[in-house]
Structure formats: C-alpha cells, structure tokens
Amino acid sequence: MGSNKSIYKPPYSLTSNMVNLVSDISDAVTRLEYSEKAFASPRLRKKNRVKTLSGTLEIEGNHLGEEKITAILEGKRVLGTVTEVAEVKGAIRAYAELESYNPESMDDLLQAHRLLMNDLLTQAGKFRTIQVGVGQHVAPPADRVHGLMSDLFQWLQASEEHPLINSCLFHYEFEFIHPFVDGNGRMGRLWQTVILYQWRNLFSLIPTESIVRDQQEAYYQALERSGVQGSCNPFIEFMLNAILLAVQSSVKSSVKGAVKTDERILDYFKQNPTGTVKPLAEELGLSLRAVEKHIAALKAEGALIRTGSPRKGTWEVTR
Predict the structure, then answer these.
(1) Less Cβ around it within 10 Å: N or C end of the chain?
(2) Residue 57 pLDDT greater than 80, yes or no
(3) CA nearest to 177, candidates 153, 158, 208
C-alpha cells in the first residue's frame, strides 16, 4: 500500500456470501427501525453503550466489566488499576462523540484517538514515529504512516462500494497500517461503527464490539488470514457475520422490550383506570408518541378498551 497518483484500492473481491450477508443485515436493520422507539429508550441505549465499551475494552485485556463501567459512567469510584480506569474513561469520551465524527475526516479520527488515549499516551492524537508490530505482523515503517492513512481516507471518500463492505475494508486496512503507538484495535472498531452510523443511525446503538469480543480468537484469525492471503476477504466475511449477529440480537432485544413495555402499560392502567398517558410515558422513559403507538396496538388487539369520554373516560384491561 503506498501513495501514488491513482486512488489506492484495498485488495478484495466481492463474493456471493458477502452479497447475501449485506442483504441479510440490511433486512435486519430495517426490522429494527420499525421498533426504533422501544430500542432507543434511554435505559436500553445506556445498556448497549456499556456493552459496546465493555466489549472493545475486554478485547484489549481490560476486564473491569459492565457493572464497573456503568458505575464510572455514573461518576462513581470503582476498584481497578489506574490504567484500567483511564482506559474506560477514554473509551467513554471517544464513543460519546461517535455521532459527530465525519468518517471521511482524518482530523476527526485523530481527535477520536486523542479522546481515547489522552490519559494513557503522550502521543495521543498523533501518528506513531516508531516501528511497531502485533503478533506476526510487522507494521509499515513510521515514515509511511501519514501517506498510507491519506491513501486510505482518499479511497473511502471515493469508494462506491456498499457502506457495510467499506466499513470492513477500512477496519482491516487500518489495523494493517497500525498508525498509532497504542489504541489501534479500539480505534479500528470505533471507526467501523462511525462508518456504519453514517449509513444507518441505529448503529450508534448496536453493540457490535460485544459480538467481536465473544469471537475474539476468530477475529484475530481473520486478520491473520487476510494478511497471509493478501486479501481482505476473510476479514470482511468475519465482520459481516459479526454485524449480522449484533443486529439480530438487537432485534430480539427490541421485541422483548416492546413486549415488556406492553405489559407495563397494561399494569399501569389496571392500577390507574383513569390514568393519563403523560405520566405513563414519564414512568416508562418513552416519548408520548411512542407510548400512544403501543396503546393503539393494544386497543387494536382488544387488550385495552377505552370507555367514556376522551377526557374523563376509563381504561379497561382485558388480559
């Protein structure tokens, strides 16, 4: 990979499996968008962000876990080494800005690394100036890093490939270049999510990193196989499968969340037959519109009946 007048193109070839995975992911995301209100509730949003943070950090050997990460998010003190806590706080800062990053901006990537590693590296937000390697992979010389990263961003800006494929390609090429002294794995996973977020906003809520964590050995094997083969294909297919699992898991969670919300609405009106929607929405942590949609569905299936006038009527729960 090197700078030249033509736009660099990562080595890969589309396969039927990739095309099928892209189609399956797109369908699953569409299903998830139908239940976005329940899926994007503040409680579930926070839970998924914690899963994301825990997943990406555990891959790098930080095992503070979801309970302690939640506590740190809430401003509480936890037991852990100075480095572990600094890693969590850095990841919280970097992911907090996820929705504001421009995936095609190298300056934004450097800023994200600065947020991620500011308490851990003196070179946070700067490309490395020394030779590094990971496992059997020896990264390109430091004096080539800026040019290689410029090539990578130029390719991303010009690529007409599907964003799902682009996100996997960028992730792999980023890890190959290994542009920073430390934090490369976390940044590669973060920037893949940034690219996916630009495609469909729900990816800010989908904890793909936790799926990668659960398949950590296969993740590293896919990186290694792509390096040995000189093709990004093994890594693309691994990551597309991981993304599909993450989206499917989120669909299941949203369905369960919707069912649980319906049950809470019915319980509320059992106890408050003359209750109104506004305090119910506040209790559920949902918008009025979202709660009204749930109520309309419950009325349509006959589980909830409204009697009397719109202002002074009562609710009857039939199940």
Answers:
(1) C
(2) yes
(3) 153
